[in-house]
Amino acid sequence: MISNLEIRKFQRVDSIRYGEWFSDFNINKYIGPVWSAKELDEIEMETESEVLSVFLENELVGVVSVAYPNNEHPRYCIMGIAVAPNKQREGIGEGILQALPNYFKTAPSQRWIAYVSSQNIPARNFFIKHGWKKGLEERDLYEFISNPERALAKSTELTSEQNET
Known about the structure:
The chain has 165 residues and is of the alpha+beta class.
């Protein structure tokens, strides 16, 4: 897992690099057409969410959309997560999952949810691989629930590794 990721709010300048990712078959198929910065602003306003850019050494390597908790859904919810095609299977996605609680200043023990299309087998496998439990099925969406015990164990491992260096 990569622990030195930088996260910030998605900006218009990120749209150019992000748009390039959609030449990748899986990203185009499962995430759909690239959103313009205007559309991302509208999504944030309508859903009370944030779209975030994730960087590694000043390179855009991930984009994630997170809805805030509300009365209907009391947990943070990952609505979409994408990793640059040339950075997949390098620990970026896991790093994003580990970094989100810190970014939103939530306890590592807080449960998160994610909604994944039933057709998106790579994303379903990603969440299962990282210890998330499959929850409800609604229409063509699967709900995944984070495993805070696993998150706590991972953060303890990272702290130990950092203290050793």
